[in-house]
Amino acid sequence: MIPFTYARAANTADAVVHGSAVGTKYIGGGTNLVDLMREGIEHPQALVDVSGLSRDINETADGGLLIGAGVKNTALAEHRLVRTRFPVLSRAIVAGASGQIRNMATVGGNLLQRTRCTYFYDDTGARCNKREPGQGCDAVDGFNRIHAILGASPACVATHPSDMCVALAALDAVVHLEGAGGKRTLPFNELHRLPEGRPDIETLLEPGELITAVELPAQPMAAHSTYRKVRDRASYAFALVSVAAALEVDGGMIRDVRLALGGVAHKPWRAWKAEEVLRGQPASQQLFQAAAEAELANATPLRDNGFKIELAKRTIIAVLGDLSGVSA
Ligand SMILES: Cc1cc2nc3c(=O)[nH]c(=O)nc-3n(C[C@H](O)[C@H](O)[C@H](O)COP(=O)(O)OP(=O)(O)OC[C@H]3O[C@@H](n4cnc5c(N)ncnc54)[C@H](O)[C@@H]3O)c2cc1C
Ligand code: SF4
């Protein structure tokens, strides 16, 4: 047992003051952090509980939503405006974890949950650069069926585990932050890093910076959106591959599209290349295939996960077919 202190933040300013101290971590629902502490992967000296802060979902002036970081995953998925304006987000959330975990988990914690790489969790001898920089990575030549096919590096081939984050990547969300240096915002697609040589640095957050909210800009197209998750079991399993998509089709032409992939990279993967192929073109199965091929052109399989490349392509094509009504 490693001792640590626990304090409940009274407000955001109080959280930031205490959260900036060395060795301190914020805790939301604790559904990931407490597991990591039990496993000896994380050992904070102090926890600042922020689960009671920022628990509102408010409509913004332009018809978007400002979602407090303390909003529980269940409350977000169930919210009427989320279900009607951003169904991809509701679907992504309920595709994750279990009802009990979603009742505890917060938006802020979901964004910063850590990888499910089995070697990362195994501190009994497995080498892991994310746990201990410079140690090496046993997944690269090990059992790597669940690992990354895009954007990986020789230092780390882990994937980001969140379903919610895949939807947020597609929706051009904006993250609101507050830290010792004041308030700022960050495009969601810039929050998480690719591993490069430092997989232990997972985001562009400054030390002690608190996520206070996530903003969804108004996007009429998002009302026509969906999420599909492919996994080993029908529930309670992380994505092998997932696709979040929103589509605007007019007279058979794709006017606009947002596409993101999960289970394939160290961060939620925005499918910019596929979007470029699709935008302004007549919807067809051939076009969907070309978009999927373009996105996966640089995919690199490891020993056990080559199947993910074809799986990702087929899932993209299926989701675009569903949303456009153009099937094979
Ligand atoms: C059995 C199991 C199955 C699961 N299956 C899935 C799944 O299929 N899909 C999926 O997406 N997820 C899944 N999860 C993960 C789950 O979604 C996360 O554990 C949860 O979202 C984390 O939220 P939390 O509030 O509990 O975070 P915590 O555990 O409290 O915190 C996680 C991290 O976020 C940091 N943090 C928390 N709040 C803030 C804040 N406001 N600002 C800055 N930092 C903050 C903490 O310091 C910590 O580093 C599963 C979890 C379990 C245990
Ligand atoms: S893939 Fe990343 S998280 Fe997994 S063992 Fe390698 S360095 Fe660690």
Automatic annotation (TrEMBL):
The keyword Zinc does not apply. It holds the Pfam family FAD_binding_5. It comes from the Bacteria. The keyword Flavoprotein applies. Residues 1-221 form the FAD-binding PCMH-type domain. Keywords: FAD, Flavoprotein. GO terms for molecular function: FAD binding; oxidoreductase activity. InterPro entries: CO_DH_flav_C, CO_DH_flav_C_dom_sf, Diverse_Substr_Oxidored, FAD-bd_PCMH, FAD-bd_PCMH-like_sf, FAD-bd_PCMH_sub1, FAD-bd_PCMH_sub2, Mopterin_DH_FAD-bd. PANTHER family: OXIDOREDUCTASE (PTHR42659:SF1), XANTHINE DEHYDROGENASE SUBUNIT C-RELATED (PTHR42659). This is Oxidoreductase. It comes from Tianweitania populi.
